[in-house]
């Protein structure tokens, strides 16, 4: 789940979200929205909270309120190289890779695991970019079901991972075998 919070003080709502260029562009369209550098949050008029939450759901697949809908894990397969100029690579509302300079390398986002490959940075000193190379396989955890409706970049395929099924009878049989063995060990040690 994203770390999204909304707090209201008097006539102002303060929005704390992960960085996403689409979110920034959309939130700037709310009259009176401004970046509060000291708090490192977006400040908007309190009456625009519903509009801001709609933007959060569209960009991140969720907002600040608890989601009754279960989340899923998703495997992303990159057949093409994905680059974002001076911004993180974001898919299904999750930051996949975030560089902060040409030579910085790229940091892996929260709820993200690279199974194959690794993120990179590139470009020039002034025009750097975040890169997920072709051939990478990434698993995203805690993806809200609503985010599955988001469009994927060209060259990326996604598959929802099914939770592992538990063979209860096999586990109970193994438990009984192990308890019997522990009893034998206790008897030998006594």
Topology:
Elements lengths: L4 E5 L2 E5 L4 H7 L6 E3 L4 E5 L3 H12 L10 E8 L3 E4 L3 E3 L2 E6 L6 E3 L3 E5 L3 E4 L4 E5 L4 E8 L11 E6 L6 H22 L1
Antiparallel strand pairs: 1-2, 2-4, 3-4, 5-13, 5-14, 6-12, 7-8, 8-9, 10-13, 11-12
Helix pairs in contact: 1-2
Number of strands: 14
Shape: extended
Structural class: alpha+beta
How many angstroms does the end-to-end distance come to?
Answer: 51 Å
The number of helices is: 3
Average the pLDDT over all residues and give the rounded result: 90
Whole-number radius of gyration?
A: 22 Å
Strand content: 35-45%
Query: How many independent structural domains?
Result: 2
Percentage of residues assigned to helices: 10-25%
Largest sheet: 4 strands, antiparallel
Q: In which order are the strands of the major sheet placed?
A: 1-2-4-3
Description:
With 190 residues, this protein is of the alpha+beta class. The protein folds into two domains: 5-60, MutS, DNA mismatch repair protein, domain I, CATH 3.40.1170; 71-161, no CATH class. The protein is 22% helix and 37% strand. The strands form four sheets. A four-stranded antiparallel β-sheet has the order 1-2-4-3, with no helix packed on it. A four-stranded antiparallel β-sheet has the order 10-13-5-14, with no helix packed on it. A hairpin with a 4-residue loop joins β11 and β12 (128-132). α1 (21-27) packs antiparallel against α2 (49-60). The longest helix is centred in the C-terminal third of the chain and has 22 residues, at 168-189. The chain is extended. The mean pLDDT is 90.
């Amino acid at each position: 789940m994203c770390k999204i919070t909304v707090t209201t003080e008097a006539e102002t709502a303060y929005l704390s979200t992960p960085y996403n260029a689409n979110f920034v562009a959309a939130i700037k369209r709310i009259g009176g929205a401004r970046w509060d550098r000291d708090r490192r949050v977006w400040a908007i008029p309190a009456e625009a909270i519903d509009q801001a939450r709609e933007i959060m759901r569209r960009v991140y697949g969720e907002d600040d309120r608890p989601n009754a809908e279960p989340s899923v894990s998703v495997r992303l397969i990159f057949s093409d190289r994905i680059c974002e100029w001076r911004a993180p690579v974001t898919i299904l509302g999750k930051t996949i890779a975030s560089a902060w300079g040409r030579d910085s390398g790229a940091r892996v986002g929260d709820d993200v695991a690279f199974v194959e490959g690794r993120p990179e940075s590139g470009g020039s000193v002034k025009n750097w970019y975040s890169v997920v190379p072709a051939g990478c396989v990434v698993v995203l955890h805690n993806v809200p079901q609503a985010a599955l409706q988001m469009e994927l970049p060209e060259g990326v395929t996604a598959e929802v991972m099914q939770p592992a099924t538990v063979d209860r009878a096999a586990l109970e049989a193994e438990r009984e075998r192990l308890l019997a063995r522990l009893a034998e060990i206790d008897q030998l040690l006594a």
